[in-house]
Amino acid sequence: MQHGFRTAAAALALPAAALALMAIVNLSGHAADEVFNYDEAKVRHFTLPDPLAGPDGAAATTPEAWRTTARPHQLAVVEANVYGRRLPAVPVSVVGDVERADVMLAGDVAATRIQARLRLGTLERSPTTDVLLYLPRGARAAPCFLCLNFRGNQAQHPDPGIHLARGWVANDPQAGITDNRATEASRGSWNQEWPVETMLGRGSLMATAYYGDAFPDRPDGRAESALASLGRPVGGQLPPDEPGAIATWAWQLSRILDWLVTLPEIDKSKVAVVGHSRLGKAALLAGALDERFAMVVSNESGCGGAALSRRNYGESVKRITTSFPHWFCPAFATFAGRETELPCDQHTLLALVAPRPLYVASAIDDSWADPRGEFLGAVAAEPAWKLFGRRGLGTAEWPAPDMPVGDTIGYHVRTGRHELLAYDWERFADHADRHLLGRAPPPTVGYPAFAPVQKPLQAQKPLPVPPPAGAIVLVGADAAATAAAAFTSMAGGPIDWRGEQDVLVVTPTEQHANHIVSKAVFRDADIHAEFMVAPEAKGNSGLYLHGHYEMQIYDSFGVSPVTDQDEGSLYRFAKPIVNAALPAGEWQVYDIRFIAPRRNASGAIERPGRVTAWLNGRIVQNELTFTEPRSPYTPYKHGVTEHLRAIERRLLATGEGPLFLQDHGSPTRFRNVWIRPLGGGSR
Ligand code: GTR
Rounded distance, CA 224 to CA 214, Å? Predict the structure, then answer.
């Protein structure tokens, strides 16, 4: 079906979770006849309303005039025309006990997990929401990032101690949600959106709650939403400024904040609100309504979020208000096709964050959300920061992908599609470092975003993905020739693995030591390998990163519980977040971002390495940190040769090493293997 959501090719590149969201759109979408514009030349000319104007039309020229007159007026305009009148604060209480548990997260990150059920209001029918928090163990008065989630807290992280969401959850079989219920199988399925270990490493707390606790995201969700307990109408003809789901999620965020500010672990003046997509719209509104949020972050919030509605590009007001009639107040839908008559635009909402730090993030392939329109929204909000003598973005030039810009307003457009990744979170943490904590962020490596394209698991077809610019091809279209040129044997001689067109087959040995060694060496790199395991010897093989760290290849299909020796594990360091292995005889795919550990002059690790890995469309390691090798089977210990001793010596001296493909007694097949070195440290 042609649904105009994204192009078919782009849809193929979406992760399973995003595809499931699309399914919701298609079920409820009624705007199939609408044509969506993706041509910059066809964007209409328009004039934006002044975000600093007061009720008499005159623009505020002082912070005082803004605070007392213009800001309340602009907020009222946004409420009346887009999201609905604000919902009242209610008392928030903890149901039962606050649960605190010390947990060890992947990469030996010592953390404390806090879980609490909050009742939002005093009535028996007042809703409850389950809040999940992670903090670096022993943290006191730390900054905190609060971000609602789409599939329940349990989907955010594989930690088995997280309580499952209790209410209705949108079906998403890929994420383990069936019959509209969260299941054990959904644990960790959205972890790529919530890199706890990384953010704890940056000194922040991470807090989340399921958005469906406040408003189940369905056109008929109003009756089960918090609105009923707030005395709002839940059916029939609604007043034009009646709040919808986005306003309810914003209210949920503020009620959670009511509780967060009471925790000694949190610095209440440093809570940032973050949201992705529809929840990015909610985060922006929460930040506008509730000035206790010290920083506001929108990730790909698009139409009705950071993107200007007057720009006819990607999703339209007509489309969003027909697909999601429950999100906005009824007045917003009346501006479909006459967006130029809106008395505000989305820059007005962004301006309401001033003078606090704001971050707007886009993704280059997310045309539906109009990335340039999100940037221009931030540009047009700038005058509000100027009133306070601050710079907002400080530029009107849309930056290249993966080049963050800005000052008190930060912005980046990431390589890749509509999702929230560790790259985005790291930039939010950079922004918090600079503008909330008054410190320089850690030196960024400045690598391009890591957003590999893998088909969703159910497609079960080989890719192949063309090697990107700068990649070193190890196994190419002529597998025998490319591999002969790219690898040596363990002894430094020619390899004896077999080439069959574009496939290279392991020549297995009983000693399990006929590995092949890339001639190219690298320090940090993105590594791509397609492979097929054979039934023999459990399909055992692996990608030895620098010869020290093994991304496991193994016949692990359906294995449960999955271990740190199954496919997707960093062998002996961390089990995969989810078991994404396919059966023997099917093509599978790994994409790995490997950041090598840094060693001092005496060879000791002074900064751990990090690995993020995707397997068959699922994230299996998310910014996992690792130190000294733990596997007893590295090539430097087994079947070691003079050639390998020299490689290891150089590795310790320069930080650069090769990729090994492992022989473990099974005729594993490889195709389309490439390395893209990062940071220029390769030869
Ligand atoms: C889409 C919607 C977008 C965005 C997205 C999401 O279907 O059209 O505005 O909010 O959903 O939340 O994933």
Answer: 8
606 vs 101, more confident = 101
The two tokens of residue 660 are 């090994």
Q: How far is the CA of 11 from the centre of ligand 1 (A)?
A: 14
User: pLDDT tens-digit profile of 80-121?
Assistant: 999 999 999 999 999 999 999 999 998 888 999 999 999 999
363-415 pLDDT tens trace: 999 999 999 999 999 999 999 999 999 999 999 999 998 889 999 999 999 98
Query: How many whole angstroms separate alpha carbon 683 and alpha carbon 657?
Result: 10
Report the C-alpha gap between 362 and 352 in whole angstroms: 20
Residues annotated as catalytic (active site), given as ranges: 277, 418
Q: What is the mean pLDDT of the segment spanning 23-42? A: 66
DSSP state of 172: B
pLDDT value at position 334? Answer: 98
**Tokens standing for 562?**
């999955």
Q: What radius of gyration do the chain's Cα atoms show? A: 26
- Asked if residue 383 lies in contact with residue 391, where contact means CB atoms within 8 angstroms, the answer is no
- The reply to whether the predicted model has a pTM over 0.85 is no
> Cα–Cα distances in Å, from 322 out to 7, 326, 330, 353, 595?
20, 9, 11, 28, 45
- CA nearest to 512, candidates 335, 623, 671, 635: 635
The protein residue whose alpha carbon is closest to atom 10 in ligand 1 is 278
For ligand 1, the distance from its centroid to the CA atom of residue 303, given in whole angstroms, is 8
Best residue for ligand 1 mutational test, from 218, 299, 300, 368 (most atoms within 8 Å of Cβ): 368
Closest ligand 1 atom to 24 CA: 7
Which residues are 99's β-sheet partners? 115
So what's the pLDDT on residue 314?
97
Q: Distance (Å, rounded) from C-alpha 295 to C-alpha 428?
A: 10
Statement: residue 305 has pLDDT above 80 = yes
Ligand 1 centroid, distance to 572 Cα (angstroms): 39
**Strand pairing of 409-414 and 358-363?**
parallel
State yes or no: pLDDT of 230 exceeds 50. yes
Q: Measure Cα distances from 35 to 266, 415, 489, 534 in Å.
A: 47, 26, 57, 48
Token representation of residue 577? 């977040």
What is the identity of the amino acid at 504? L
List Cα–Cα distances, 116 to 293, 479, 495, in angstroms.
20, 55, 58
Which band of pLDDT confidence, cut at 50, 70 and 90, is reported for residue 4?
very low
Closest CA to 442 of 452, 432, 451, 450: 432
Q: Is the pLDDT of residue 546 over 90?
A: yes
To test the ligand 1 pocket, which listed residue (301, 320, 370, 374) has its Cβ within 8 A of the most ligand atoms? 320
Residue recorded with tokens 């914003």: 250
> Are 38 and 314 a contacting pair, CB within 8 Å?
yes
pLDDT value of position 463: 62
Ligand 1: centre distance to CA 329 (Å): 17
Kindly write down the DSSP assignment for every residue of 318-383, as one continuous string.
HHHHHH-TTTS-HHHHTTTT-GGG-SS-HHHHHHTTTTS-EEEEEETT-GGG-HHHHHHHHHHHHH
Instruction: Tell me 28's DSSP state.
Output: H
Give the whole-angstrom CA distance, residue 155 versus residue 112: 18
CB 83 within 8 A of CB 352: no
Ligand 1 interacting residues, C-beta cut-off 6 A: 21, 25, 277-278, 302-303, 315, 320
CA distance 644 to 541: 19
* C-alpha neighbours within 13 Å on the C-beta side of residue 523: 14
For 506-568, give the DSSP string: ----TTS---EEES--BSEEEEEEEEE--SGGGG-EEEEETTTEEEEE---TT-SS--TTSTT
Separation of alpha carbons 42 and 300, rounded Å: 22
